[in-house]
Amino acid sequence: MNALEVTGLAVRRRRSWVLRDCSLAVPAGRVAALVGPNGAGKTTLMHAAVGLLAPARGGVTVRGQAAFVAQDKPLYETFTVAETLRFGRRTNDRWDEEAARRRLDRLGIPLGGRVGRLSGGQRAQVALTLALARLPDLLVLDEPLANLDPVARHDVMRSIMAEVAERGLTVLLSSHVVSDLEDTCDWLIVLNGGRLQVSGDIEDLLGGHSVLTGPAGASAAGCDVVGESRTGRQVSLLVRGGPPPDPRWNARRPGLDELVMGYLRSPASAALPAPAEVAG
Amino acid sequence: MIWVTWRQHRAQILVTAGFLAALGLLLLGSALEARSFVAAHVPGGCPGGTAFCGSLEAAVGLGERYDAVYSVFGWMPLVLPALVGAFWGAPLLGREYERGTHLLAWTQRVPVRRWLAIKLAVLGGAVVAGGLLLSLMVSLWRPVFREGIDSGFGNIGIFNMTGVAPAAWWLYAFALGTLAGAVLKRTLPAMALVVAGVAATMFALFALSDHYATPQRTELTGSVVLGDPDARLVGGGTWVDPAGREVGTADTPAACERRLDVGRAGRNTDSWHKCLFDAGYRYAVTYHPPSMFWRFQWTEAGILLLASAVLGGLAVRITLRRTAGGTPLPGAHDSSRVSTRTPNSSPSTGTRSSLPWNIPK
After folding, report:
1. In B, which residues are within 8 Å of A138 by CB distance?
2. I want to staple B81 with a disulfide (CB 3.0 to 4.6 A). Which of A213, B97, B169, B277 is the partner?
3. Of B330, B344, B350, the CB nearest to A51
4. Which residues of A touch B340 (CB under 8 A)?
C-alpha cells in the first residue's frame, strides 16, 4: 500500500514549469529521501503534497493525514512553547498532548520559553513535536537538517527514526546533502530540474547498478550507461545492471552518493518503476 | 481558532482598547468639568432661566474647553483608520507570508478558507465594535458643548467621528490592509499602502459627498454667509441680478467698484457686497442642510461597506488561489485526493526494471 501517490504532477510558476509530469509512489512505512540540487523542485513537490499549492496538472493522494514541517521550521516567534502546543491542539482534530509534552520534557525544552529564543536544534525539535503530536500517517519534512550542528542533526534524525519504528509512519524528507540520509532512508527519489529521475528502494537501486573503473580504451558495449567521469586515463562509469563483457573493467557496488551524483550529472537518465506500479 | 486569533492579534486588540478607554476617560472628564462650570453659574444647568446661558462668558468658557479637547482629536478622523489598517489589516496576511508562518498555519487541519473566515470575522467585528464605541463616546461628549450650535454635519472631521462613519472607515481600512498584505506579502509596504489608500479614499469621498443628495439653493440678501454654520456648501456662490439672472463677478455693475483688500482686512470686499445688495443683487448659494446628516452617514457607510466587502473578498480569493484552493487538507477522510486533474501525458511502456525515461516535451 502506498502512503503517498503523485500522478502526472505539473506545477507552473509565472511562465516556467517548476515541476513536470512527476509520477511516483512511496510505500507505507518507508523513509523516503527526496534529493536534488537547489531549485530542482523539491520544495514545490512537498508543498503540492500537503496542499499548499494548486498544481497545474496532475494530483497528489495521501493515504491518511499528512503533517508538514517547512524549511527553516517556521513557528510563531512570540509564542511560548506551551502556546505553540496549544496552537496545534486548536487547529487539529487528532492531537496527542501527552506525547508532545513528554517528548519536549525528555529533550529538556522548557514549555515556558519563548520560541524565538530557542536554539536551532530546539526549534527543530519543537517543530517536529508539533507535527508528530498530530499523529500523522505521512510526515513531510523540508530540509529538516539544514542549519543544524552535527549533534542536533543526529538528534533530529534519531527522533524521526524512533517515531518511524514506534508508529510505522511514512516519512518524506528532502535534503541536498546525500550523506545525511545514507543510514536512515530506505527509499530514494531524485529530482532534477523539475523532472523526476529516480524513484525506488535504495537497496534495489544500489544492487541494480555498478560502478565500473577501467582504462580509457575499454569498451562499454552491452552496458546501460548512466554517466561517466574521466580522470586522466582512468574512466569511471555508473551503469545499470551487472559488469560488461570487456574484462578490463573493474566492477563494484556504488555508494548512495555515487548513485545520486551519477544521475544528477546526466539529467537525461532515469531509473523509475513502471507507471502501472505507481498507479497501483 | 478563536484562541489562535486572539493570541496572534492581542497586542492590537489591547492597544486599541486601551486607547479607547483613555479617550473615554478624557471625554468624560472634559464633559463633567464643563457641566460643573455651567452649574456654577446656573444651578439647573443650561438652558436655564438666567441670562448666563446665552452670554458671551458661557460661549467663551465652553468654547475654550471644547477647543482644548478638539485639538487632541482633530487628527483622529484620518489617523485612526490609517492606524487600524496598518496594524490590524496589513499584518494579518503580510506578516504570515513575511515570516513564512503561513506554511505552518495553513498545513494544520483547519482549512485555509476557515482560517481566513474566522480571522476576518473576529477582527473585522472587533474593528467595527471599536469604531462604534468611538462614535458613541464622541456623540455623548459633544452635545455638552455644542447643543443647539451644530450637529457635526458641516465639519467633515466631526462628521467622520460620529454616527456609523468611524465603524465604516475602520472596517474599510482593515479590509484594505488585509488585501495589501496578501498582495505585497510584506508588512511594512502594506502599511504604507494602507496609509496612502485611506488618505486618498478620504479625499475622494469628501469630493464625492456633494453628490450624496440634491443640494438646496437659496438666495441671500444682505450677507454672503449662510446663516447655518452647520450646513455644507456646494461650490462657490454666485450673484443674481435684480432680474433674477445669475451673473459672473465680472458682470456685476460698474457702479459698485471692487477694490482689493490689503492684508487680512475685508473692508473693501464688505463695502462691495453692501453696494451690490443695495443695488438689488442677491447672492445664491447651494448647500446641504444638517437634516441630511443620516442620509450622508448611511450613504458613506454603504460605499465603504461595499468597498470593504470587495477588498476582503479579493484578499480571500488571492490567498485561496495560491493554496490548493480551499479544498480540505490531506487526510479529511481515510484517503483524500488533494487535487486531481487529468495527467496530460504519462509514459505508456515500462517494466519493473530500471528504464530510460522518455522526457516529455
Report:
1. 330
2. B169
3. B330
4. 7, 58-59, 61
Q: Domain of B175?
A: 2-214+291-322
Which of B99, B101, B338 is nearest residue A51 as measured by Cβ atoms? Answer: B338
Domain that holds residue A256: 204-269
CA dist B282 and B246 (Å) reads: 9
Q: Are residues A131 and A249 in the same domain?
A: no
Consecutive 10-residue averages of pLDDT for chain A (280 residues): 92 88 92 91 93 89 93 95 97 94 94 94 94 94 90 88 88 86 89 91 92 83 82 87 80 90 86 52
Give the chain B residue whose CA is nearest to the CA of A94. B109
Across the interface, do B109 and A93 touch by the CB < 8 Å criterion?
Answer: yes
Contact state of A268 with B106 under an 8 Å Cβ cutoff:
no
Distance CA B183, CA B343 (A): 31
Of B1, B341, B359, the CB nearest to A59: B341
Which of A171, A202, A233 terminates a domain? The answer is A202
How many Cβ contacts (< 8 angstroms) between chains A and B?
169
C-alpha to C-alpha distance for A121 and B7, rounded to whole angstroms: 25
pLDDT digits (tens, 9 = 90+) for B187-221: 999 999 999 999 999 999 988 988 999 999 888 88
H or E element at residue B220: strand B216-220
> What is the distance in angstroms between the Cα of A19 and the nearest Cα belonging to chain B?
12
**Dist CA A50 CA A121 (whole Å):** 24
Within this chain, do residues A44 and A154 fall inside the same structural domain, yes or no? Answer: yes
Q: Which of A20, A57, A271 has the CB atom closest to B354's CB atom? A: A271
Q: Contact A62/B331, CB-based, under 8 Å?
A: yes
pLDDT digits (tens, 9 = 90+) for A37-68: 888 899 999 999 998 988 888 989 999 999 99
Nearest CB partner across the interface for A57, out of B3, B330, B344: B344
* Residue A104 near residue A129, CB atoms below 8 Å: yes
pTM score, whole prediction:
0.86
- Decide if A132 contacts A99 (C-beta within 8 A): yes
Locate all alpha helices (DSSP H) within A225-274, ordered by sequence.
256-265
Nearest residue in A to B331, CA atom:
A65
B52 and B36 part of one domain: yes
Q: How is residue B53 annotated by DSSP?
A: G
Instruction: State how far the Cα of A73 lies from the Cα of A146, in Å rounded to an integer.
Output: 10
The 8-class DSSP code of residue A224 comes to: E
A202, A233, A253 - which closes a domain: A202
The answer to whether A23 touches B343, Cβ cutoff 8 Å, is yes
Alpha carbon of A63: minimum distance to chain B alpha carbons (Å): 4
Contact A75 B353 (CB under 8 A): no
**B177 occurs within a structural domain:** yes
What Å distances lie between residue A271 and A142, A191, A236, A241, A267, CA to CA?
A: 23, 11, 19, 12, 11
CB contact under 8 A, B337 and A60: yes
**Dihedral sign computed on CA atoms, order B285, B291, B296, B299:** negative
